[in-house]
Amino acid sequence: MRIAFHRGLLAAALALPLTLGLHPAARADQSGADVLAIGGSVTEIVVALGQQHRLKARDTTSTYPPDVTGLPDVGYMRALSPEGVLSVGPALILSEEGAGPPEALEVIRAADVDFVEVPDALTAEGILNKIRVIGDALEVPDRAADLSAQVEAALAVALADAARPQGDKKRVLFVLSTQGGKINASGTGTEADALIRMAGGVNAVSDYAGYKQITDEAVGLAAPDVILMMDRGGDHGAADDELFALPAISLTPAAQTRSVVRMDGLLMLGFGPRTASAIRGLNAALYGQES
């Protein structure tokens, strides 16, 4: 059985009954643009707070909502250059924790620009804290409180729906890449690990933290029921054939049932306003429910 993010199967699961502050009318007015958003979830939260008109530029990971991709792009958040960042003339930089490199951030922080670092999040509480920090920085705390209430309620429902007995949980291996036939997989302490657990699964790898290239033997011992990957577009049928032909994957339970789930990377790993949708979508893909 092949498990994937088919449009029809998961449309309901991914439909989040929130407006999240999206204001189309604000997109036309860029006169007040003064903010550079670095990090996909930061940009999403700015928009969800109704402050899209404040956005002057963004980084490469900021791809949602789609119309933000029309903004100037200062590059990948972990490979920033001070010249590129400062050239867009922001008055305020909102940056996800982990942007870099450190020497570039030192130069940027020393410039005459307000710089606010937004803490990473791996929990519902962490997402709400992101919203609060960004709302305070944009001086819209009331909107942040409203958005937090919506997101908190959606997360509570999604987490409750995804809960299941430990013995019924599927083992999920998040594969970051298969370059050169080598499996780079998530251990503990990552966004992928957190989402798998929130969606009612078990991370098949728990003996190291972060991402790591693992041996074929380690993949076999992990014995995943399902492979989880980022959806990078293209022909999924051919991509699945290549995935399950890899020696490391070919003998796993996931390969026997051809069980692979592909999700949009920002939706899955962003831990922003849409995380409830990610939980519901992954849970539906793992267990065949439209909860």
Largest sheet: 6 strands, mixed
> Total strand count, please?
10
Provide the low-confidence segments as ranges.
1-29
Q: Give the structural class.
A: alpha/beta
End-to-end C-alpha gap:
20 Å
Order of helices and strands: HEHEHEHEHHEEHEEHEHHHEHH
Shape: globular
Helix content: 40-55%
- Integer-rounded radius of gyration: 20 Å
Strand content: 15-25%
Global mean pLDDT: 90
With helices defined by DSSP (H or I, 4 residues minimum), what is the helix count?
13
What does this structure look like?
Strands 5, 6, 7, 8, 9 and 10 form a six-stranded mixed β-sheet that branches. A four-stranded parallel β-sheet has the order 2-1-3-4, with helices on one face. It has 13 helices and ten strands. The protein is of the alpha/beta class. The longest helix is centred in the middle third of the chain and has 22 residues, at 141-162. Helix 2 (40-48) links the parallel strand 1 (35-38) and strand 2. Residues 1-29 have low confidence and may be disordered.
